[in-house]
Amino acid sequence: MENRSSDSKNLIEGFISSRVRGRGLDRRTERAYRLDLEHFYAWAEQRRSGGTASEKNFVSEAETESGSWEDWMEAYLDYLNKERKLSFSTLYRKNRVFGYYLSYLVKQGIISDCRSLKPIKEGEEPGRRGEPSQALLSKKEADAFFEAMNREYDGLDSEFRRRVCLRDMVMMELLFYHKIEISELLRLDVQDYDQKAGTLVVRRKRGKDVTVRLFSHELQKKMALWLKERKSFQKEGQYYDRLFLSKLGKPLSMEMFIQIFDKYRRLAGIEKKLTPKDLKENCMKQYAKELVMEKWR
User: pTM to 2 decimals?
Assistant: First the structure.
């Protein structure tokens, strides 16, 4: 396996240019892909230079064998799982990025062939392979999450805080009940929503627009109310038309969105370590149809 810093940097940059910039993906994706690969190379180099004699022999042999890249990447993912205890969603993303990278190396003639990496199985927690995942929400917990938001909204005396809570409710319901990525949600503009038709145009990362219908009349009502209330946050400038604004009239960052999610997770009494992505994927994969039938007619 090639792990000299100058060569690895060139390979990473070539991959980023081809896979990320060449496909029109955003800068967050570029940064995530680059860090995933840089951290992998740094870990491999550390193991190579500071490992035991048997580890060094393995590296020497692996560098000359087809498939050594896959072996090293799987060992690294196993380390991140058992030692660093990273979440399933993070491990899954890294596994996918490494697969893309291997395909790139084959196309560039760096390696002659590659096999698929062992999949990261859903339902596994870091360091607890084979046991049920604690990262997924039960239906009861998902209900509690939204009930916590509704309780806060009903109990607030401040009109300003009610506007903020309304914004958060609309965002979380869009994320939970519709196939919208967080980054896509935060990029939405006011003109992307057709209030009369109840449809939302979502700009995908690769430039393809998708029209999503808000099939909940309750959510449509909340969206209409938010469009009136957001004027209190709206300021002249570059982000005048952004659908979801911060208190200062600027776009919400990913970090701010995660803080909002964590706030209501705690209010709902959910102790699991979750991300907004877990909320969205859990609904889509486990019981989306059931919730749609119950709540969204």
Answer: 0.55
